[in-house]
């Protein structure tokens, strides 16, 4: 121990920081937020002891052990313990941290990241009258004036909103905040802004985490937070921004937000227009309402949701700064039960208009139903992902490939198609199979449209879930996809290529259930089971 303590403080601090976060970097928290956004809400159903809740991960335990070893290591490790706070249990840790930093305010200066998970919610009441009086005294010190009685009443009702406000009142350097939308009232936060002008002044990221059980809260309730000068990335789940609730303080050119994310939210045309006008510079916009699960459906209001053309019109003031655009609207699951129903659905969707004027746009994620037959993308485009593709993509792909060969997309290197049934995008218009072609040949003919270009074309499948576990349903972006190594046939003839593992089974199962591939079933026990019937073959045999 003496040899370790003899090291320079700077070096010793670096060693301790690796204990806290081995791969730490400047952007570690926003990336964690994105990863956590995809995590199932019920991952944390198991009840643990209070001690396990308090120190629930290996890193925290290691840092606490360092604090107990000697004063010097405690001075280095303590800021790292308090830097990132996550409460995944019954929220007793939230009470504990709030009490700790009110007793010793200097600890609150270490806190940069707070995430309070909305489910399961079971906030424990202060364990004794002494604890309740402690929080009452903390409220008194805020000098809230006439609002003090309302805070006392909320404390008696065990309102999580008050405890979050008390926690944040002592964290002046917090940069990243995730709160449970639909489960808290924002009035206590609004009161804090009125009594402390510097409240949350360093906040950069806001994530209002929610689920389908608590949808429909008003996004405008976070008016003061979005007005913060350093807030760059606000993310909302299952919220509404509709009607006459748009905040008057969000005047044109007043919001610093650059990356806006809305997941399973509902926004009307007027609100999206005003919001984009209020933002100074938008670099990324995400409106992701599509899901394979019926329960993820946004709460529909009496107001009409904006359409694709209205969004592009709203984004026009940011045409020189927008780098990433993600548009996916909700659709009913039954729409894809038949090709006819889906094609009728596609015909009624308002398409994304020309994007050529968006000179900085590099990444586009868009639903298949929103694309015209001949999309017009900007020359800056690098990555294109077409999601929820449930019918032939050949006309769209052919037009994009032709534009690539004509030099319209010099930077485009990736075109990815995502489908539930991976056999649908590879068919000809009208959902026909070319005579004498196998599914792998259908795919290769589609991919070969991009030959002599820099584009890597691939098809990904949404992960097929366990029927008893709907939470397992998501894009299988890490799994196998259609690729040349999987499809190029060997010397044994068509269909004998190296289509591996899950993808092979997926294509085979889908194809054998597809009426357009029904003729394959008669060859189920034949080496020619993937070949389609071609009249020319009969002619050759007759000769």
UniProtKB/TrEMBL annotation:
Protein name, per record: Uncharacterized protein
Acidic residues bias (residue ranges): 470-487
Disordered: annotated segments: 470-493
Highest taxon of the lineage: Eukaryota
């Amino acid at each position: 121990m003496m040899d370790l303590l003899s090291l320079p403080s700077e070096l010793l601090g670096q060693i301790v920081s690796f204990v806290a976060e081995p791969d730490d970097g400047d952007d570690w928290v926003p990336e964690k937020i994105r990863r956590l956004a995809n995590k199932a809400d019920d991952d944390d159903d198991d009840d643990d002891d209070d001690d396990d809740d308090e120190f629930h991960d290996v890193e925290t335990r290691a840092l606490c052990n360092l604090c107990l070893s000697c004063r010097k290591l405690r001075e280095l490790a303590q800021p790292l313990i308090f830097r990132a706070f996550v409460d995944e249990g019954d929220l007793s840790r939230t009470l504990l941290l709030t009490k700790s930093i009110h007793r010793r305010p200097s600890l609150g200066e270490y806190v940069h990241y707070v995430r309070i998970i909305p489910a399961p919610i079971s906030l424990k009441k202060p364990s004794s009258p002494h604890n309740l009086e402690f929080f009452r005294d903390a409220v008194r010190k805020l000098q809230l004036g006439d609002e003090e009685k309302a805070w006392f009443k909320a404390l008696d009702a065990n309102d999580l909103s008050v405890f979050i406000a008390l926690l944040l009142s002592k964290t002046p350097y917090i940069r990243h905040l995730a709160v449970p939308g639909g489960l808290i009232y924002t009035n206590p936060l609004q009161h804090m802004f009125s009594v402390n002008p510097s409240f949350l002044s360093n906040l950069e990221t806001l994530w209002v985490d929610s689920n389908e059980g608590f949808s429909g809260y008003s996004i405008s309730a976070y008016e003061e937070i979005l007005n913060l000068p350093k807030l760059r990335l606000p993310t909302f789940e299952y919220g509404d921004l509709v009607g006459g609730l748009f905040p008057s303080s969000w005047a044109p050119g007043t919001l610093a937000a650059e990356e806006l994310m809305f997941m399973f939210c509902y926004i009307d045309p007027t609100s999206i227009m005003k919001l984009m006008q209020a933002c100074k510079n938008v670099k990324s916009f995400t409106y992701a309402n599509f899901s394979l699960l019926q329960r993820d459906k946004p709460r529909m209001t009496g107001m009409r949701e904006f359409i694709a053309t209205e969004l592009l019109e709203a984004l026009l003031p940011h045409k020189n700064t927008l780098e990433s655009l993600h548009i996916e609207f909700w659709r009913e699951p039954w729409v894809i039960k038949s090709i006819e129903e889906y094609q009728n659905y596609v015909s009624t969707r308002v398409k994304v208009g020309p994007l050529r004027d968006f000179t900085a746009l590099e990444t586009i994620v868009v639903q298949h139903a929103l694309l015209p037959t001949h999309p017009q993308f900007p020359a800056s485009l690098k990555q294109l992902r077409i999601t929820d593709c449930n019918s032939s993509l050949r006309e769209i792909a052919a037009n994009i490939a032709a534009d690539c060969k004509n030099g319209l997309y010099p930077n485009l290197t990736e075109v990815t198609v995502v489908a539930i049934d991976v056999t649908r995008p590879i068919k000809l218009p009208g959902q026909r199979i070319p005579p004498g072609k196998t599914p792998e040949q259908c795919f290769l003919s589609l991919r070969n449209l991009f030959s002599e270009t820099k584009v890597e074309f691939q098809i990904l499948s949404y992960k097929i879930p366990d029927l008893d576990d709907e939470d397992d349903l998501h894009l299988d972006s890490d799994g196998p996809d259609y690729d040349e190594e999987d499809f190029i046939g060997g010397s044994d003839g068509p269909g004998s290529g190296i289509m591996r593992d899950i993808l092979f089974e997926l294509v085979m199962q889908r194809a054998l259930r597809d009426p357009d591939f029904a003729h394959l079933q008669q060859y189920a026990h034949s080496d020619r089971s993937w070949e389609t019937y071609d009249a020319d073959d009969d002619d050759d045999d007759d000769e």
